[in-house]
């Protein structure tokens, strides 16, 4: 369990071999060069920023194992030590990275479209509620108008029947008056 630069370099080499990643490719992934990765593997001095970049690019690499040789080489997504064949996200090929970027962009577009559709849905839902309220108001108006028409018909019938009686009563009165004057 040594922490020398040689031991760290040896463990990094084991990791790269296990993942089947070449030194030059790993250099590109860590924003360094293949030569700098080679220097790390060979136990030469390197800056802390390079180690931090390795940690960032290799989320499945157990840092305790890399630095001290303790535990398993790999950790799973939860940080638990153990074997996992999951390649780190940043170790995608250029083609895979392009596809990921394209899908991410498509995802953003779909989310924006979904948001627009949700707004339109909410707007239509509000319009539908307003229409339902308007229809209910018209139904109530029809009920009121129907009741008013019934009342008016009854009133008209009453006037007609009362008016007939008055007309008949008026004729009888006129006949009586005519008899008296004759």
| Strands, count | 0
- Name the average pLDDT: 81
Estimated share of beta-strand residues = under 5%
Q: What's the CATH architecture name of one domain?
A: Orthogonal Bundle
Distance between the termini: 150 Å
Category by helix and strand content: mainly alpha
CATH topology of one domain: 434 Repressor (Amino-terminal Domain)
Task: Give the number of helices.
Answer: 6
Low-confidence stretches: none
Work out the radius of gyration.
47 Å
Helix and strand string, N-terminal first? HHHHHH
| Shape annotation | rod-shaped
CATH class division of one domain: Mainly Alpha
Helix percent band: over 70%
| Biggest sheet overview | none
Oligomeric nature of the chains = single chain
How would you characterize this protein structure?
The termini are far apart. α2 crosses α3. The protein has a domain of 86 residues: lambda repressor-like DNA-binding domains (434 Repressor (Amino-terminal Domain), Orthogonal Bundle). With 182 residues, it is mainly alpha-helical. The chain is built from 6 helices and no strands. 74% of the residues lie in helices and 0% in strands.
Secondary structure blueprint with pairings:
Layout: H1 5-19, H2 23-29, H3 34-41, H4 48-57, H5 63-68, H6 94-181
Helix pairs in contact: 2-3
């Amino acid at each position: 369990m040594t922490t020398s630069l040689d031991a760290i370099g040896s463990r990094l080499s084991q990791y790269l071999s296990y993942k089947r990643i070449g030194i030059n490719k790993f250099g590109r992934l860590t924003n360094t060069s293949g030569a700098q990765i080679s220097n790390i593997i060979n136990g030469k001095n390197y800056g802390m920023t390079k180690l931090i970049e390795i940690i960032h690019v290799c989320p499945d690499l157990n840092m305790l194992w890399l630095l001290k040789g303790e535990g398993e080489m790999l950790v799973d997504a939860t940080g638990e030590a153990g074997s996992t064949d999951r390649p780190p996200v940043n170790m995608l090929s250029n083609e895979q990275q392009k596809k990921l970027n394209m899908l991410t962009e498509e995802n953003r577009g779909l989310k924006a479209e979904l948001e627009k559709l949700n707004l339109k849905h909410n707007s239509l839902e509000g319009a539908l509620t307003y229409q339902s309220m308007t229809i209910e108001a018209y139904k109530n108006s029809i009920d009121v108008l129907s009741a008013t028409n019934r009342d008016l018909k009854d009133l008209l019938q009453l006037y007609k029947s009362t008016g007939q009686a008055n007309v008949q009563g008026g004729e009888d009165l006129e006949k009586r008056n005519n008899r008296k004057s004759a």
